[in-house]
């Protein structure tokens, strides 16, 4: 239950804090850490919760934006980065970067308190 | 707490944040912070615009005097309706920023020599070049002059500036234009100086070629000796069809420039000399094909009995485009056309009384003077038999991740000393060179356009362009009342023959400029008997004009011939006919050059393959259409023959020299078959004739043609591969390999990355019938469907009907899509 709650909370808080564009893009690292401390679960679970929370959010946001944009920008960026012009690859890379960082942040937090 | 795992995990997390937050070098200027760039709430994803975005908006603005309504049509062209002029320019600034912020910011930073601030030490040579050329100095002169002497222009530019900054103020960090995120820098507030810097950049683009051409011509003359130089780089153009028809009489000149007595020896150096180059960095010179077409046909030639005006400026083809379409309507005027993001008002367009267009005059307004400094402090230089002091101008170039670079620029009475002990390029060749350039004088160029936007008749037009100084332009005009005219206007130097073609001695006042040609004496025609006026960057007059126009390489010959041939004697012309003419691909150069060349071709001495290529070339219909192969073969053969003829003469120089213009060889072929220069001077045992060189040239070109044929690239469109390049040159943000014909010497002057940057046809009927487009789109955002929405249409030679209507009509027009309300904020 705490695991599911963690995922949802991570996703929600990451989204909420992301609305404030003047805060650094990595602000969710701090909030993930706090969530992981507040809701202690096992390290592996915590990592997965953080990764899923941020990764799914980023994937979902990127996917939604990309659909509404008819892939106009993503297919250009996917040539610059370079990902062979594949918008799918670009969404995956986006989600992966978010997931990796989100997971690590939550993992770090999970070491602060033992789960009850 | 598990200390060790915590520390390890925290370190890895922090390290990853750090890594994703530093700039990732992707080559060139691309260096995003990857984490930021990818974050869907901060980075590039925020720039992916919904394809069905609703652009309706309500904007509160403190600085407005009243309310302003903007209606956007289906091509995202804003139609601004304001109660007063300043509010209109405020909103124009706001919209330029909303749709083109990065481009305005980036271009003015380049003009100000501030590229290294963003891109690092790699770009320092470009920054130093612009600083030492006096770009910032020139903008400052204009700013000071306008602030002091011209309250109306000051108010105009201030209102524009306030509009740009109002947009910036409400811009959220996550909504920064895409390129800022990619290159990782931030916008800064707009200032009037930036507007003047932008206009300086246009002056550089259109007259700055002399900054390299004068050096190249000097080096070429020094290398070849004056007599051979004068033969290869002749100013005589037999086939010239000038802007002002041949035979027009000119008044006695008010200035008779005196050629210094010993200039043959001292200046032209009619004795051969040889120089050795010290090769260092070289900046990119403006494109030699920067030019344009414009013409106006009078009512006697049109079906409606009303004039039609056409204008298509040929510039570098870039995304975001240099141009932004706009309609501005206030109680004082109603104007439509192409504007420059970075400057208020419309630059090329029409109002409800007349239409106007511009082409580049090509006159030389930038000279170098060679100075002798007393010592290494460079504080004094020799002038008229005495030491004269300089002032020093300090410019600080900030360099990203590196220490500031300080330029101490010596300012002579000519202008800034561009080249000296501290700054040299391959062409400057160790000399101390001061720049004298009309663009460095204070100028109210903005006011010319401001007044043209409001002009009602030929008198207003004349008053408006009288203010124009630099870059010299051919201003064409056509009015609803039936007048057509063209005038070449700018500050043009009254020159003696060949004055300023080469570096001039800086120690002797007899080489100074002896005056600026008065406005009344600049070439003009009004309602000529032939029924039309035109210009295509050719020389404005024949040799009976009393002033020296400049070196022939500045004046392309053939487009002008083509335009005049196509227009002469025509009647019943419609706007559609004029569209067809603007996109006409007929090659008048090849029409003359192919038979001239064929006189020297001995078919039986050619290889089988060469015979086949020559066969395709001779069967070609002389149109540079996309699918033609003949033009590619012709071009390769002609270039190759030129190389065979000129290559030996130029080969020995260590300094890069320029090839003679194409007309030189063509006119030589027509004049004289025993052309001395044809001989390859490197072969001592035989004398090559032009026939030999033509054969050698054809055989060489054939090899290239066969190669292209194998790659399926012999057809013109594939060979030419026209592209509209993003300003950073990133291919993914550009449009490549466009299916379009045309080329150099063609009315449709579309080259590889250069060509008609705005095409406009205006039929001056009661309700104006206007067509136009540019190869770009109204939005500068690569994530918007409006980023490149005109490109395919442009390549296909199609036009949009331009909506130019009063507010009530436009509001209800079926093509009107969105409404932006600017409301004065109540305090």
Brief descriptors of the model:
heterodimer, A: 116 residues, mainly alpha, 5 helices, B: alpha+beta, eleven-stranded mixed β-sheet, seven-stranded antiparallel β-sheet, 29 strands, globular
Molecular structure report:
The complex is a heterodimer of chains A (116) and B (827). Chain A has 116 residues and is an all-alpha fold. Chain A has one domain. Chain A has helices spanning 2-18, 27-38, 43-68, 72-80, 87-110. Chain B is of the alpha+beta class and 827 residues long. Chain B has a domain at 588-720. Helix content of chain B is 33%, strand content 18%. Chain B has an 11-stranded mixed β-sheet. In chain B, strands 4, 5, 22, 25, 26, 27 and 28 form a 7-stranded antiparallel β-sheet that branches. Chain B has a 4-stranded mixed β-sheet with strand order 16-17-11-20, covered by helices on one side. The model of chain B is unreliable at 272-281 (pLDDT under 50). The A-B interface holds A 15, 18-19, 21-22, 24-26, 29, 43, 57-58, 61-62, 65-66, 68-70, 72-74, 76-77, 79-81, 85, 93-94, 97-98, 100-101, 104-105, 107-108, 111-113 and B 1-2, 5-6, 9-10, 12-13, 16-17, 20-21, 26, 30, 34-36, 38-52, 172-175, 178, 182, 730-733, 782-785, 787.
Task: Give the SSE layout.
The complex is a heterodimer of chains A (116) and B (827).
Chain A: H1 2-18, H2 27-38, H3 43-68, H4 72-80, H5 87-110
Helix pairs in contact in A: 1-2, 1-3, 2-5, 3-5, 4-5
Chain B: H1 3-21, H2 34-38, E1 57-61, E2 68-73, E3 78-82, H3 85-111, H4 115-119, H5 124-133, H6 135-149, H7 151-170, H8 178-183, H9 192-207, H10 210-224, H11 226-232, H12 263-266, E4 291-297, E5 308-316, E6 318-319, E7 324-330, E8 333-339, E9 348-351, E10 354-360, E11 366-370, E12 380-383, E13 386-389, E14 391-397, E15 405-411, E16 417-419, E17 433-437, H13 445-454, H14 458-466, E18 473-479, E19 484-489, E20 504-505, E21 524-526, E22 532-535, H15 558-567, H16 575-582, H17 588-598, H18 608-619, H19 630-651, H20 662-671, H21 690-710, H22 716-720, E23 722-726, E24 735-738, E25 754-756, E26 759-763, E27 769-773, H23 791-795, E28 800-801, H24 807-811, E29 816-824
Parallel strand pairs in B: 1-29, 3-7, 6-23, 11-20
Antiparallel strand pairs in B: 2-3, 2-29, 4-5, 4-22, 5-25, 5-26, 7-8, 8-9, 9-10, 10-18, 11-17, 12-13, 14-15, 16-17, 18-19, 19-21, 23-24, 26-27, 27-28
């Amino acid at each position: 239950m705490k695991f599911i709650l963690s995922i949802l909370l991570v996703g929600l808080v990451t989204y909420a804090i992301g609305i404030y564009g003047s805060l650094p893009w990595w602000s969710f690292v701090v909030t993930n850490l706090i969530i992981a401390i507040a809701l202690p679960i096992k390290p592996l679970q915590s990592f997965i919760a953080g990764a899923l929370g941020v990764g799914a959010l980023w994937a979902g946001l990127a996917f939604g934006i990309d659909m509404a944009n008819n892939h106009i920008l993503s297919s250009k960026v996917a040539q610059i980065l370079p990902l062979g012009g594949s918008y799918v690859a670009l969404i995956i890379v986006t989600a992966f970067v978010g997931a990796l960082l989100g997971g690590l942040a939550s993992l770090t937090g999970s070491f602060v308190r033992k789960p009850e | 707490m598990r200390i060790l795992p915590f520390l390890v995990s925290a370190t890895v997390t922090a390290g990853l944040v750090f890594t994703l937050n530093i700039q990732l070098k992707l080559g060139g200027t691309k260096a995003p912070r990857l984490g930021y760039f990818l974050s869907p709430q901060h980075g590039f994803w925020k720039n992916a615009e919904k394809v069905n975005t609703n652009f309706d908006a309500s904007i509160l603005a403190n600085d407005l005097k009243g309310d302003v309504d903007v209606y956007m049509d289906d091509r995202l062209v804003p139609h601004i309706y304001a109660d007063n002029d300043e509010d209109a320019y405020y909103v124009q600034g706001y919209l330029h920023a909303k749709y083109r912020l990065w481009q305005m910011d980036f271009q003015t930073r380049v003009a100000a020599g501030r590229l290294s601030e963003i891109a690092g030490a790699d770009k320092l040579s470009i920054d130093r070049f612009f600083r030492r050329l006096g770009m910032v100095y020139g903008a400052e002169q204009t700013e000071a002059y306008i602030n002091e002497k011209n309250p109306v222009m000051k108010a105009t530019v201030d209102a524009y500036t306030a509009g740009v900054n109002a947009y910036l103020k409400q811009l959220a960090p996550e909504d920064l234009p895409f390129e800022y995120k990619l290159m990782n820098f931030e916008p800064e507030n707009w200032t009037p100086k930036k507007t003047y810097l932008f206009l300086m950049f246009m002056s550089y683009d259109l007259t700055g070629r002399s900054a390299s051409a004068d050096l190249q011509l000097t080096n070429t003359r020094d290398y070849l000796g004056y007599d051979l130089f004068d033969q290869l780089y002749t100013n005589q153009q037999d086939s010239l069809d000038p802007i002002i028809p041949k035979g027009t009489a000119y008044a006695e000149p008010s200035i008779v420039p005196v050629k210094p007595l010993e200039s043959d020896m001292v200046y032209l150096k009619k004795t051969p000399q040889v120089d050795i180059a010290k090769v260092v960095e070289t900046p990119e010179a403006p494109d030699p094909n920067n030019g344009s077409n414009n013409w106006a046909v009078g009512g006697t030639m049109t079906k409606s009995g009303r004039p039609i005006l056409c204008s298509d400026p040929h510039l570098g083809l870039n995304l975001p485009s240099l141009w932004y379409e706009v309609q501005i309507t206030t109680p004082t005027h109603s104007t439509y056309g192409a504007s420059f993001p970075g400057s208020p008002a419309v630059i090329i367009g029409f109002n409800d009384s007349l239409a106007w267009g511009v082409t580049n005059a090509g006159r030389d307004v930038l000279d170098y003077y060679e100075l002798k400094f007393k010592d290494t402090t460079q504080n004094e230089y020799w002038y008229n038999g005495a030491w004269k002091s300089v002032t020093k101008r300090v410019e600080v170039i900030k360099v990203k991740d590196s220490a500031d670079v300080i330029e101490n620029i010596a300012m002579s009475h000519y202008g800034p000393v561009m080249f000296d002990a501290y700054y040299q390029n391959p062409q400057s060749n160790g000399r101390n060179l001061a720049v004298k350039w009309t663009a460095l004088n204070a100028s109210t160029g903005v006011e010319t356009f401001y007044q043209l936007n409001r002009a009602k008749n030929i008198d207003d037009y004349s008053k408006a362009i009288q203010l124009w100084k630099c870059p010299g332009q051919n201003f064409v005009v056509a009015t609803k009342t039936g007048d057509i005219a063209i005038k070449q206007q700018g500050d043009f130097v009254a020159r003696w023959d060949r004055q300023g073609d080469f570096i001039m001695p800086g120690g002797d006042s007899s080489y100074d400029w002896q005056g600026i040609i008065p406005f009344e004496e600049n070439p003009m025609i009004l309602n000529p008997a032939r029924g039309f006026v035109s210009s295509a960057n050719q020389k404005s007059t024949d040799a009976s004009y009393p002033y020296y126009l400049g070196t022939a390489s500045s004046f392309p010959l053939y487009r002008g011939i083509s335009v005049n041939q196509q227009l002469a004697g025509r009647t019943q012309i419609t706007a559609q006919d004029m569209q067809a003419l603007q996109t006409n691909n007929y090659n008048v150069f090849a029409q003359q050059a192919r038979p001239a060349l064929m006189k020297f071709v001995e078919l039986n001495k050619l290889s089988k393959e060469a015979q086949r290529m020559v066969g395709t070339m001779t069967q070609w219909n002389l149109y540079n259409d996309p699918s033609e192969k003949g033009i590619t073969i012709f071009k390769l053969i002609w270039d190759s023959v030129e190389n065979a003829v000129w290559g030996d003469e130029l080969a020995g120089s260590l300094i890069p020299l320029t090839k003679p213009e194409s007309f030189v060889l063509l006119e030589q072929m027509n004049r004289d078959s025993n052309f001395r220069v044809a001989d390859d001077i490197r072969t001592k045992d035989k004398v090559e004739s032009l026939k030999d060189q033509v054969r050698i040239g054809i055989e060489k070109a054939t090899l290239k043609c066969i190669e292209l044929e194998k790659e399926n690239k012999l057809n013109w469109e594939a060979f030419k591969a026209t592209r509209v390049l993003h300003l950073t040159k990133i291919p993914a943000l550009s449009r490549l390999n466009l299916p379009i014909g045309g080329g150099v010497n063609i009315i449709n002057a579309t080259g590889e990355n250069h060509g008609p940057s705005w095409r406009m046809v205006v039929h001056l009927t009661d309700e104006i019938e206007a067509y136009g487009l540019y190869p770009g789109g109204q939005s500068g955002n690569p994530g918007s469907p409006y980023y490149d929405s005109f490109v395919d249409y442009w390549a296909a030679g199609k036009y949009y009907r331009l909506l130019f209507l009063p507010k009530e009509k436009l509001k209800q027009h079926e093509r009107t899509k969105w409404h932006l309300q600017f409301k004065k904020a109540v305090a």
